[in-house]
Amino acid sequence: MEQTVLAGYQPVNNINVYYEFYPNHTSEKTFVLLHGFLSSTFTFRHLISLLKKEYQVLSIDLPPFGKSAKCNRYVYSYKNLADTVIQLTESLGLKKMTFIGHSMGGQIVLNILHMMPELADKAILLCSSAYLKRSKLPLIITSYLPYFHLFVKYWFARTGVKKNLQDALYNHAIINDEMINSYLQPFLTDEIFVALTRMIRDREGDLPAQILNQIKTPCLLLWGDHDKSMPLNIGEKLNKDLTNSELIVLKDSGHALPEERPREVFDYIKGFIDKQYHTAAEA
Q: Taking a C-beta distance cutoff of 8 angstroms, is the pair 153, 186 a contact?
């Protein structure tokens, strides 16, 4: 029998957030999935199909991506996005979760671990964003020009979904029409580009090393050896700056691990969770 999914919108932190919740009454563990930049819950579809058989799963479309609202009044800082995720999990009555963040979603997870460490028992970071600086001041100032969002739209149209997928994937053979159309769908109206313009202004830099050093939550870092977006040396540095982390490198893999290596990602997550569980039980 097909498992129930509770999908819908929740108004939190002054914006409508789309989520998909897969309850599993046989498991006490809940995974919260946060996608990367220009992505959505769609990225995790293969991983969700594996996780939901054994655990509860909550996948969130981070504003302004996917089906979540696109609003130029919302503050698209990592801190506010993290706070939005926190408020959504609270509204659903979830406690002590394991967070999985891919790319930019990994940076949101790290912000959550910094802001409210008691919410998470563990975290899995898939090619996480790290050490990116804030947008340069001239770009921020330029973003206030009328119709600047049309320049953002032009940039996106020039690169295109297929090119972005080719950059994110080591194995281009898995790119198909379903992937291209699903990733393209949220970008067919101008609203998203207005919101992305606001994001250029709001996005602070990634967490600095001194803050990362303070995060004590056990973290599993999974990285593709051919990641062009967040090269492996970023993962190695992040592994050093997090005081309770483990780094695993997946061979012949790019940046989009949930697309390219969902089975291996699931197996490593399960091994990490089981190992952590046994370690805690023995303590």
A: no
β-strand pairing of 30-34 with 56-60? parallel
Q: Which long-range contacts (CB under 8 A, 24 or more apart) does 232-241 make?
A: 234/130, 234/131, 235/127, 235/128, 235/130, 237/130, 237/131, 238/125, 238/128, 238/130, 238/131, 238/212, 241/209, 241/212, 241/213
Query: What does each C-alpha distance from 228 to 208, 250, 260 come to in angstroms?
Result: 22, 14, 14
Mean pLDDT by 10 residues, the chain (283 residues): 81 97 93 97 97 97 97 95 98 95 98 97 98 95 93 87 94 95 92 95 96 98 98 98 98 98 98 72 44
Active site members: 103, 255
Average pLDDT value for the chain: 94
Whether omega before 64 lies within 30 degrees of 0, making that bond cis, reads yes
Q: How many CB atoms lie within 10 A of CB 117?
A: 13
CA-based nearest residue to 160, from 175, 138, 140: 175
Sort 112 into a burial class: Cβ within 10 Å, 0-12 / 13-18 / 19+.
buried
Q: Residue 159: its pLDDT value, please?
A: 84
Quick: pLDDT tens for 216-257: 999 999 999 999 999 999 999 999 999 999 999 999 999 999
